[in-house]
Give the backbone structure.
Amino acid sequence: MRVCCTIATVTKGAAGKPRRYRSALRARQVEQTRQEVLDAAVDLFARNGWARTTVGAIATEAGVAVETVYSGFGSKKALLRAAMDVAIVGDAEPVPLVEREPYRKLSAEPPDRRLQGAIAIAGQIYSGPVSRLWRALNEAAAGDPEVADWCTELEAGRRTTMSEMLELVYGRQADDRIVDIVWGLVSIETYTKFCVERGWTTEQWRDWAAEAVRLFAGRP
């Protein structure tokens, strides 16, 4: 009887604190599960492509139920998009690439070092799973107009990043033609051609891309 009263007293005296603690713990667990699902999705989509990757396989890799994946992301294609976003910037926070720490640090460098550094950041991104996820996205886009629209959005966003990169390097806004050229040069496609198909190192691609930008946009 005494034990029961003690438990009741502790619960009542906590004034809701255990409930808040459980809520915070639950939120952390949900976030951890979400990250594990995203990690599994990045790995499997990059390794196997769109068609060969199933939600069931992602759930198994993450150690969760299929229903957990659907409740967290809604659909396989939404999960692919989330995986791509995380692979590009490393997390799911809605912060543009040029506002993140690696880019912000470049502002303290001399202009030519900014150019090398900005292209090095692109190379680091492309050398991870992004180039293979891009292939998976394009595979999915062939049969799904919504995914095709996402690909268009991603490319538009990358062009904006190139424009902001040029402004950071040269201290002025570049004209549209130069932005288009750099958008084409510093791309997943050129990285894939040179580094994946021809065996270049990421550093060789970076140096080539930087020199190509200087050729068209001038030396900073």
Remarks:
- Residues 1-13 have pLDDT under 50 and may be disordered.
- The chain has two domains: 1-76, 95-220.
